[in-house]
Design a protein that fits this description.
Structural class: mainly alpha
Number of strands: 0
Shape: elongated
Keywords: Membrane, Transmembrane, Transmembrane helix
Protein name: CBU-0592-like domain-containing protein
Largest sheet: none
Order of helices and strands: HHH
Helix content: over 70%
Radius of gyration: 15 Å
InterPro entries: CBU_0592-like
Pfam families: CBU_0592 (PF26604)
Organism: Sphingopyxis soli
Number of helices: 3
Length: 89
């Protein structure tokens, strides 16, 4: 196995661990679904899966993770805008 292939595998496995950890922490109530940390864990994990699945030619998986990352980034933008909006009194 080449060094490049090993790096791609490490990226894929790291992405899997990150997304699973995010889900476990969410399920245990340690993270909020609409929180920055949970969403960034998903976006970064999806990016790792995009690299891994794209490299390995698993196009459906790559597309799924592009959508997954897009949902996460969209949610992050909603959270950011909500926190920047002035509070009505």
């Amino acid at each position: 196995m080449s060094a490049e292939a090993i790096i791609i595998e490490v990226i894929g496995w790291s992405a899997a661990v990150l997304i699973l950890t995010a889900y476990i922490l969410l399920s245990l109530g340690k993270l909020a679904a609409r929180g920055y940390i949970y969403q960034w864990m998903n976006v970064i994990g999806a990016a790792g899966f995009i690299v891994n699945s794209g490299y390995n030619g698993a196009i459906p998986s790559a597309v799924l993770n592009i959508v997954w990352a897009g949902i996460g980034l969209f949610t992050i933008s909603i959270i950011w805008r909500a926190r920047k909006a002035p509070i009505a009194r």
